[in-house]
Amino acid sequence: MILKAILIIFATLCIIIVTEFMIIINIKENESIDKALKRFKKKFERTGVLKELRARSYFEKPSITRRSEKIKAAYKQTMYATDNY
After folding, report:
1. Residue ranges of the alpha helices (H) in the chain?
2. Which of 6, 15, 18, 85 has the fewest Cβ atoms within 10 Å of its own Cβ atom?
3. Residues spanned by the domain of 26
4. Cβ–Cβ contacts within 10 Å for residue 45, how many?
5. What's the domain count of the chain?
């Protein structure tokens, strides 16, 4: 009962941050709070909210975003090329 209350409070705090998503975690009987929080954090990370929040924290010109995407793609290509040898 207390665990549900804690998770509901934590979830509502995160829902305030995440307006588009509502993360619901069903707590199983005799489940520890650590496991439930771990599942919640995993679900929260999968939504990609923090990544979007960091991206929107400051304005970046479209040309710079394209440039950084090209740099990341080139880096990934070189990494995959070295793995295949």
Report:
1. 2-17, 33-47, 49-55, 62-84
2. 85
3. 1-47
4. 11
5. 1
Q: What are phi and psi of 75, to 5 degrees?
A: -65, -45
In a domain, 17, yes or no: yes
Residue 83 included in any domain: no
CB 18 within 8 A of CB 51: no
- Residue 6 maps to a domain: yes
Residue 11's contacts (CB-CB under 8 Å, 6 or more residues apart) are 23, 24, 25, 40
């995407």: which residue's tokens? Answer: 69
Q: Is residue 18 within 8 Å of residue 45, measured between CB atoms?
A: no
20-77 residue pLDDT tens = 568 888 888 888 888 888 998 899 888 888 888 888 888 999 999 999 999 999 999 9
Give the whole-angstrom CA distance, residue 73 versus residue 75.
Answer: 5
Q: Do 7 and 23 meet the contact criterion of CB atoms below 8 Å apart?
A: no
Please give the torsion angle defined by the CA atoms of residues 34, 36, 42 and 45, in that order, rounded to the nearest 10 degrees.
-100
